[in-house]
Amino acid sequence: MTNVGPLSPFESLRASLHRRQFLRAAGLGLGASALPVGVGAARPGGASNSQPYGDVVAVPGARVSHATVDPGDLPTPVIPNDPNILNEGEGKAVPRGTPNGGAKSAAIPSPSVGTTGTGLTVERSFDGFTTRDVVRGIDFNDDGVIESDEIFFAIPSDNQVAAGPDHLVTVINSELGIIDKSVPQDGADRAGGGNDANDYLTHYRLEDFFYGVLSLSPDDEDDDGDGLPDALQFENIEVFDPRVRFDPGSGRYLVACSEFNLPDTKVVNGETVAIDDPNDYHGAYLLAVSTSDDPSDPWDIYRVAPERNVGLVDYPTLGYDAAAVYLSHNYFAMPNLAFQGASMTVLDKGDLMAGRNTPTGWEFTGLTNPEGSLAFTLQPAAMPGTSDGAHLANSRYGDGQTLTVWDVTGQADLSSAPGLENWSVRVAPYANAPAAEQAGTNKKVDTLDTRLLNLAYDASTGTLWSALTTASGYVRWFELDPADRALGQSGSYRVANQSTFLPTLEAENGAMVLVYNVGAEQQYVGVEVAGRTTGFDAGELQDHQLVQAGQTAYNYDRTKGDIGPGAEENVLRWGDYNGAAVDPDDGSFWVIGQYAKDSLPNEAGPAVSELYGTRIANVAFED
User: Does the global pTM surpass 0.85?
Assistant: First the structure.
């Protein structure tokens, strides 16, 4: 063990968590670490010639861990009774890696929401998880008492939802919840936040859910007889950035997130010392596959380590088709967290559904856009029932006027590497948006950047849909035609006199629904939806509705670690994405969004600031 000085274990944890801000402060750029991969030549119309992948390697069994978990065997997290726990605790900002870049001016077409046509309605709406649901207490110094500086909670929520026949599965940073769709959630808050106790069948910590495959130290013995490996008290493993999907073709849920193993420390004779752990600074995917369409049944869980895994496996994304599951991430290499581009892993879906220990898979690295820049934040589509070709897409970081679409072929037989090509499509210019204002404070909220936040596939039209945040507080949405390798339509939209940001969408049977955040100088940050149906005027959204108004000024105390070093003055970390899903029963849409939640009365004492809430809604177009 090595003496690491006076830094407390919690301070060490907190200092290590600000990936995004560290990268910004360090001035890391996309071009500095570009990998030597060929560049496709541009051709008229903004498309490019097909470009092969960079490096491709098989995923060996040695890099895959497999186990099963029965949710019924897991403990249900208990909401702490201390009414001041959030005021005493520390905010644990779950960071996102961001290559350095600046906003540039961009032309913004006039936004348009139609006033005629079929209206969008909010059928049901109720609260999901709040900050208080994910409060953690860890006895870092092993003295038997959890002090105020050993209490923390995850920021932001990174909320997602998936809909199956009878249930919803919702995930946020640190938590997975199962909701029975037949329960008439009334939105009433139990003491401490969240829904009525009966609204969730149950919920679990992601660390508990994936415990069977986490990269724990090899000497995790139970010396103190508490039934848990001792190192679990000190193991500094982060499980973050969750994604969830339901595949109607197989009737299975899929959950993906990242694991990162930070250095472990403990206090010995009053000194903070490091615990030797060969897994320090290693990152990996975590993937869970349900064994039925009932998420309360057992799940198969996997840890899949990329070839480049001594660094951050950051901002994971999740897609699938009939033959394979697709995982992608942004990779930041240790020791200096240099951005090395995005990677994509293809795993045999049949192997995963059968719960095999070592699913066949291939990993692609060195992925570049057609003009040669490193790919950043690849979003794979969910394409149920399709096996003749899968798709991913990405935008340029910071500013640009093209999108890259990736075509995967040959994935039906993964005994050999599938084919991977890309092409670009020209769109209206986009650029980083300014931070969003909010009522009651001069502190603003971060609107992220210009990365695509997800990729949807509409089987009825064969088109892909995606969206991003762009300059001057607009969201930009796109319909892409992979058959013709062309842009079908696109539109820009902003709620009048407000910042509109973090757009996430889904599409089905020619209809598209978009969920996003809104904030303004005289408005708290809330959640809205907008959408369109097939045949409506190209480039326009035909209706929008409020899902949840913000209730208070979001004020994540900067002295408690909200956005870390290198942060802009008075800009608070907000979120990484919202969530949307199609209901397989009736084709309606489920959405989830983070909003600024007011303090709630607590039976044990005074009101407690909630910091954020999440709102789940079922939305549909009128007949």
Answer: yes
